[in-house]
Amino acid sequence: MAQAGQGWRVGGGPATSGAAGDRGAATTSRGGEAVQAPSDGARPAKKSYPVCLRTKDEVFAFIEANRQAFPVQVMCEQHGVTRAGFYAWLKRQPSQRQQEDEALMARVRQIHADSRGFYGSPRVVGQLRLDGRSVGRRRVARLMRQAGLQGRSARLYRHSKVLQRAFYAGVPYLPESATPQRQDQVWVGDVTYLKVAGQWRYMAAVMDKHTRRIVGWSLSARRDAALTREALARSAWSRCVSPGVVFHSDRGIEFANFEFRRQLSELGMLQSMNRPGRMNDNAHMESFFHSMKCEELYGKKFETEQQLRNTLSSYIRFYNDRRLHSSLRYLPPAAYESRIQGASSVN
User: Which residues lie closer than 8 Å to 194 by C-beta, 6 or more apart?
Assistant: First the structure.
């Protein structure tokens, strides 16, 4: 057998002889072929492959992809597999599991595309279960990794709110706003900032806290009482609000002003606001705005207000009618409302 110092470097030319531990020295495989040893302190390929190639199928696929550039025997020895095993793998027909994965992969791609690229593996699994297919989350995550698919997420920065006038006294926190038991029992509202051509626009939205449905929203260049009053008026019109509904919000002046409070009183609604220092009291609306910005608005620029309106309208329709919610047993708000209404009619 040839000595390590008598091998050949990859690319031609004799290797420099030296001790076995020399950096850059070539080593010789059992078949006599020369293999370049790692240089500059790099680990041998065989010690690195478990990180990159986890299974024998992945090893064989790697060998198949590189067999025109490197000898099969050398690659097999470096990765601890046999030539016979490799050639048997080439002739082997796809297993039942692999065939099922191929069919499932097509559906996973379709679900991810239908979600506009928003869904990660949990919501893809939720949609598959709605289709009547019981599939594990890890299996779906593996298929999504293989296909290069992932859910949309982003680390967002939200500008802090400007100092506002002193909070108007007399608006309590109603404990019943925390855990609604039915539709149209508690509504929650909030305001967020959006940009159009470098200028701020303000969006107010109202959500049914029990079903997570966005029941109304408005957009304006000014953050004032008119913004929140319009959102509330649209919500009341879309749901035919009945007296006794609780409206909960943060402690912003756009919800504490007398005009908005008078509108709530005319509708027979009860007002509730966050407790001082308890931002999580209105977490559902914060979560909606976060999802909207991450999934739809992040990375986009709008030159006109109409472009922004169209995008918001499209996303809210998607959010209400198609987007799966983990808190609703992976149903969209519209389907969840239909289910609970059907259950109540039966009872």
Answer: 200, 201, 202, 203, 219, 297, 302, 308
Nearest to 193 by CA among 220, 216, 217, 212: 220
Q: How far is CA 204 from the centre of its chain?
A: 24
**Cα(121)–Cα(128) distance, rounded to whole angstroms?**
10
pLDDT digits (tens, 9 = 90+) for 214-252: 999 999 999 888 999 999 999 999 988 888 899 998 888
CA distances from 153 to 98, 195, 214, 295 (A): 30, 19, 21, 7
| The CATH number of domain 175-346, selected from 2.60.40.3950, 3.40.50.150, 3.30.420.10, 3.40.50.300 | 3.30.420.10
Domain boundaries of the chain, sorted by first residue: 96-147, 175-346
pLDDT at residue 54 greater than cutoff 80: no
**Considering the entire predicted model, what is its pTM?**
0.57
Q: What's the pLDDT tens digit per position in 249-288?
A: 888 888 888 889 899 999 999 988 877 767 677 788 888 9
330: region left, alpha or beta (phi > 0 left; psi from -120 to 50 alpha): left
Task: Report the SS3 class of residue 32.
Answer: coil
Report CA Rg, the chain.
Answer: 30
- Is the pLDDT confidence value at 6 over 70? no
Q: Is 246 helix (H, G, I), strand (E, B) or coil?
A: strand
